Amino acid sequence: MKSMLRSSYSLIAPIYDIAIEKAMRQAREHSLRALPTNVPSDVLISGVGTGLDLPFLPALHRYTALDFNAAMLARAISRKTSLDINWLLGDSMNLPFPDERFDHVVLHLIAAVVPHPKLCMSEAARVLKPGGTILLFDKFLRQGRKAPLRRLLTPISRNIATRMDVVFEEILPPDLEIERDQPALLGGWFRSIVLRKVTMA
Hints:
By secondary structure, the protein is α/β, with parallel strands linked by helices. It has five helices and seven strands.
């Protein structure tokens, strides 16, 4: 499944920006305003895609930008930016970092793309320092909502682009608490969420 998805995104990469850049721009910018602007931090962008988040990132931070698809990552690298960024080809479901490595993690349109969203979230939480935040922007089904068409289409869509049946509450790790959960696009199907890592007793 992962190899099929990787091949699909290699084909999508040249037209990805045309398809979603304008529609998602305001929501991306709003989500990234949650990053601090006064304290330099280590920030992971897990699933950087073609780099559409880059124009909205505060310049004071040190960034690690990771994506599982070489074609998407190459497009992100080609963007002209003065940000301090370390680029890395890697898997959001198996992050190549030690525990508690980052102050903040950005997950934009990746949790519903990967084959195992719960694992993606768990990995993001693992590499996050206690007190750090995860900025999540993605599409989620509301708990208890049947959405038969989205569930019917997911076995096809999950192999070529994205899942449409992910319930956020079902993939939330126990060491993350919700600080903000706001509708972002399409009547709340897309949500902008800020999570903070707490120390488990």
